[in-house]
Amino acid sequence: MTDDVDTSIVRAAADDDSAEANAALARGERAPSAIPPDELARLTDDIVAALKTVYDPEIPADIYELGLIYKIDIEDDRSVHIDMTLTAPGCPVAGEMPGWVENALLGVQGVSHAKVDLVFDPPWTPDRMSEEAQVAVGWF
Q: Span of the secretion signal (predicted)?
């Protein structure tokens, strides 16, 4: 995994009426997850493992190690939201890959819903690749 991926697994506190949660939202912070820490750790590991089953068909490396995953959010209802990019905006599987990722996420025990958004800011560059991905493509 590259160090640039936002792996903060948190929930939005928009539905929490407490003054503390509202103050945290006003500061741009998020409330801690209501999911028990051990379950959240398992869910996180399983989500990353699922993401590693999705490959860019033109590159022999998975999308996680390629650095295509920019953000993973797990909500208290166990829905998962992913921000990801592609190696190029004109990628031939741009219309299909988000569905592949959603299907992989829905295969994780405990995930209730999955949503994948394609983002292109910042643009992907090869320096986002992990060492494992660089070895897979013969760059290391």
A: none
Q: Rounded to a whole number, what is the distance in angstroms from the first to the last CA of the chain?
A: 15
Which is nearest to 61 in space by CA: 122, 3, 114, 2?
A: 2
State phi, psi for 84 to the nearest 5 degrees.
Answer: -140, 165
Indicate the angle between helix axes 97-106 and 37-51, nearest 10 degrees: 140
How crowded is residue 76: how many other Cβ atoms within 10 Å of its Cβ? 15
| pLDDT tens-digit map of 86-112 | 998 888 888 999 999 999 999 999 999
Reading phi first (left if > 0) and then psi (alpha if -120 to 50, else beta), residue 127 is in alpha
| Rounded-to-integer distance, Cα 31 and Cα 13, Å | 6
Preceding omega of 122 cis (within 30 degrees of 0) = yes
Q: Retrieve residue 92's tokens.
A: 């031939």
CA–CA dist 44, 52 (Å, integer): 12
| Residue 134: both structure tokens together | 């660089």
In the block, which residue shows the tokens 């792996």? 7
